[in-house]
Amino acid sequence: MELNRRTVIAGAAAAGIAATTLGTGTAQAASGGKKPVKELFGKLADGTKVYRWSLENGGTRLKVLNWGGVVQGLEIPDRRGHYANVSLGFDNIEDYVAKTPYFGALIGRYGNRIAKGQFTLDGKTYQLSVNDGVNSLHGGTQGFDKHIWDVEPFTKGSDVGLVLHYTSIDGEMGYPGTLKAKVTYTLTKHGDWRIDYEATTDKATVVNLTSHVYWNLAGEGSGTIEDHELSIAAGRYTPTDTGLIPTGELAKVAGTPFDFRKTKTVGRDIRDGHVQQVQAKGYDHNWVLDKGITAKPEHVATLRDPRSGRTLKIATDQPGLQFYSGNFLDGTLTGTGGKTYRQGDALCLETQHFPDSPNHANFPSTVLRPGQTYRTTTVHTFGC
After folding, report:
1. Interval 270-302: pLDDT, tens
2. What is the C-alpha to C-alpha distance for residues 192 and 31, in angstroms, rounded to an integer?
3. Are 108 and 143 in contact (CB under 8 A)?
4. Strand partners, 83
5. 5-39, pLDDT tens digit by residue?
6. 5-383: which CATH topology?
7. Pathway membership of this protein (predicted)?
8. Catalytic choice (56, 172, 220, 350)
9. Pick from 253, 357, 364: which is nearest to 318 by CA?
10. Phi-psi domain of 191 (left: phi exceeds 0; alpha: psi -120 through 50; beta: other)
11. How far apart are CA 203 and CA 177, in angstroms?
12. Contact assessment for residue 292 and residue 317, using Cβ atoms and an 8 Å cutoff
């Protein structure tokens, strides 16, 4: 039986688990979340202060930096009520600036890859910043993850959260138009983490915002996620070339290691030798969600750690989901818990439009024009 957050907290209390184990989760289930707390996290080389906001509601604890909108920590209880930080990250700003492979970051102006850093819009070709070989990845060398965001904390009814703002000027990283981005992080009374993205522009541009949290539901630094169980509601995926750029094909997952329509462990087929896995050193692909683009978020994926019992369910209105199995973690990074991160120690599930969409007419459009508002929502529901 899968339990939701309220059941876990109530059951733990009935079983006599100490309040120190659950923190203030029991009280919050009834009375709503705490007001967000702000503290100094560090300083950039130029003296700019980096702050961390701590939020707690419905048994979920979330820590967010104004640097890149980074989720620096996300703690949830297991089946016994014991908390663990289930997202990879660092305990200092210096590592985020110099080393991070997008740990917990807000990604923009365009999540994922654009081939050769080029696209043509309304007859004009734009050259973007390239930072992944000849390609542009996650917005270029100075994407949204490498800027200070304005942060406004809020409490609204039983919800708590943060509203983050960043304005990307015309020409930044080669993108046309001044883009005003607004991202809202909300912790609900049930402990769900909701992300609402908005953006407007003064010139036609492309936009694809996402969140790049690295998940390990057993706890960061605890080892491999190959025994995690995963399901993805997608009958197709987008194969890539050797540079991990989509070929344009929408290939069926049936009969391949990419079939997660029925729950299986991440590691079951990861070494099958499929050419797509060899190129990516594992999974690093976009799944074409069966539901397509929807007016409201719909459930698309479930991740479960059998050891702790923790589960993560993802709902989105987006047409794609990038599943990345932590292939390029190489043991050179030390995380918040003092442990090094090695290949396969975490995975990402990034809700999105498809990679390289501006260069594929058969992919859903990512064009945003003046007078339009980009809006998308992703909801993370935790349980055990």
Report:
1. 999 999 999 999 999 999 999 999 999 999 999
2. 16
3. yes
4. 77
5. 544 444 443 333 333 333 333 333 334 578 999 99
6. Beta-galactosidase; Chain A, domain 5 (2.70.98)
7. Carbohydrate metabolism; hexose metabolism
8. 350
9. 364
10. left
11. 4
12. no
Q: Which two tokens stand for residue 166?
A: 């960043």
Is 226 noted as a catalytic residue in this protein?
no
Distance of alpha carbon 68 from alpha carbon 60, whole angstroms: 21
Separation of alpha carbons 288 and 347, rounded Å: 18
Q: Is 0.90 topped by the overall pTM?
A: yes
Give the residue carrying structure tokens 């923790």.
310
All structural domains of the chain with their residue ranges: 5-383
Q: Which residues contact 293 (CB under 8 A, 6 or more apart)?
A: 317, 318, 319, 364
Catalytic annotation present for 94? no
- Strand, coil or helix: what is 369? coil
Amino acid, single-letter form, for residue 54? S
Among 138, 212, 353, 380, the active-site one is: 212
Give CA–CA dist 145/138, Å, rounded.
9
Tokens read off for 328 = 């390029």
